[in-house]
Amino acid sequence: MNNQESKFKKILFWNLGIYFAISIIEILIVKLLSSEGDKTYHGLFFMIFSAFGIGLQVFLNLVFSIYFFLHQRKDLGKSFLLSLLCVLLIGFPLCFGGILLGR
């Protein structure tokens, strides 16, 4: 059980780290691509970039989870599924909160 918990913590740590790094990169891209005079769409651009980033990460976690379940490594499959849920629970509120970025 201890080994399974450490695998889950490691997978969750990496997934959240990747998600927050991608979010910071998305904020920088939005700030660089938007003109200084028009800050109206910053939040919308961030929301769109963030939705694609979350969708890609959730899709990859789902693929890894299915792969590990099919290869009889259920502990890793469960870890990727739980990590997928954590990314969804944290990611989508941050994605929709990005609308406030333009205010």
Which key features would you list for this structure?
single chain, about 100 residues, mainly alpha, 3 helices, about 85% helix
Write the layout of secondary structure elements.
Layout: H1 2-33, H2 42-70, H3 74-97
- How far the N terminus sits from the C terminus, by CA atoms, comes to 47 Å
Compute the CA-based radius of gyration.
Answer: 16 Å
Classify the beta-strand content into a percent band.
under 5%
Pattern of helices and strands: HHH
| H/I helix tally | 3
**Helical amount:** over 70%
Total beta strand runs: 0
Q: How many strands, what sense, and barrel or not for the largest sheet?
A: none
- Low-pLDDT runs of 5+ residues are none
Number of structural units classed as domains: 1
Class by helix and strand content?
mainly alpha
What would you call the shape? Answer: elongated
Mean pLDDT metric: 83
